[in-house]
Specification:
single chain; alpha+beta; Rossmann fold; 19 strands
Length: 431
Amino acid sequence: MRLSAIFFENYRAFADEARVELRPLTLLFGYNSAGKSSILRLLPILAASSGPGQSGPIALDSIAARGSSFKDLLSRQSSSPELKIGLSWTSETTSAFEISYSIRDLADREVQVVEKVHVSLPSSAEESITALWSAATADASSSTRDYEFRIGAAAVGTFPVTFSGLCFQVPTGQSFTDITNRAVAPIRDLSERVHWLNSLRSVPARSGRFGVRPRHMSADGSNAGAYLAHDSLGSRELLQETSMWFERITGRRLDILRYSAGGEQQYSVVVNPPGASPGIEIPIVDTGEGMAQVLPVVVLGCLARLGYLPNDSILAIEHPELHLHPMAHAELAALFCKVATTTPRPTVVIETHSENFLLRVQIAIARGEISKEDVIIHWIRASDDGLSVIDTITFDDSARPQGSSWPPGVFREDTELARTLIELRRQRTHE
């Protein structure tokens, strides 16, 4: 099942219900403090909340939550203690469905409870399932609580439900069992399928020891070198794909230098300067912040492009262009256009401020390298009342923005600065 949308209400700066459609390439744009990061980080928060052993509905101890309390997740523009979160799923072989949660904060007991779960199949409203927490008959601190179940509008009885984060188990043999189990199944997989890179990646270590082969990219990208090092012992396909991207940008070939130290096999991620003699390798940590910051981004993109990630994976990446020359922004966009057209296709969600990145995506649409239906932009902005709202933008076959959602004057700063410089030069010539 592919995650096709997330929706939420009373979350961070979004007091009203907001919906974010996810396509193979989804871009989040907007000015600072508009709410882009809140949207993107909801994906790793949901992934952490789907893992085993979660005591509360939301994994507040996840890295993406950044030490938030449940109250911190709620909108400051609302007094409601309830957070609403939903996910939409699509599949080529089964009908689409949505699952939503209403999570209530019981502040006096320092605990959060899933007050309501709703599973809906848009093709059949009669088959919607609703489970309502029976607050009067259940211990809020227990992972198993009683819920009244309804199919459509008809009540079918009260049953015990056991929660672990957002995942839950219902009694077997009931009329609602199959549908609810089907709704929970893709949520259980989120912890393996969401691959999040935050905006400040770790500088690659100067050297590393061979250990267990990585299974999941760390949020700070610190194990990107380990992915390449292990690949260098086998097919070298990932290393070659990553190296080719670096060569296009810098002319430098990326490689893994293996050596023995203290009786252990170690490695360094190195680059070969253009024109350098054979054997001249420079650790990537010494080549500049841009190269170090982009390494995990490119490795993750190449992992997806080569099909090394689980099916229906979601790549959530903050500012992949950080510390890079603008010329490299376009090459990153080209890479992720290729990733978004890989079979099976992952979902790539990128938060960026880069105009060059966007222009290269538009070029890819106009060239037919990626379908217009596979690209969507969400422009996040603050309204006059201080709330964040989302304007959704799609493109036609010529990559022109459709509708009236494209914000006026966006990316006008370069033009205005150039116009100011020309005017100042004109004034100086007439002095």
